[in-house]
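Entry type: protein chain
Record version: 2
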Amino acid sequence: MKVKPVMDALEDRGADVVLVAATPKFAAQAIRKLTEIGWKPMHFLNNVSGSIGGVIPPAGPENAEDIISSARGAMPFKPGESWVPSSRSSRI
C-alpha cells in the first residue's frame, strides 16, 4: 500500500482529522508523509501504531509532535481505591 496517495486524497477532500490504524511500518510512513506534505490535521494513532520504539524513531521524533494515541497497561491501583495518590503516599 502506498501511503502518500491516501494522505493526499484526504487532504484534497478537506479532512481535518486522520486516524491511522496500521502496522508500525505504515504508521511511521504516514507520520513522515504528513510532515513532508506540510499538512497538520488532528492526528490519532491506534495502540498498535502508537508503538514508541517501532514507529517514532523511523518516523522521526520531530515529525511526531501533537499526535494523540491510545495506550493500555496494568492499573496501578486496586479497584475501589482512588486513582489520585495522596501527598502522604509512599507508593507510586
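Comment: The first helix runs from residue 3 to 12.
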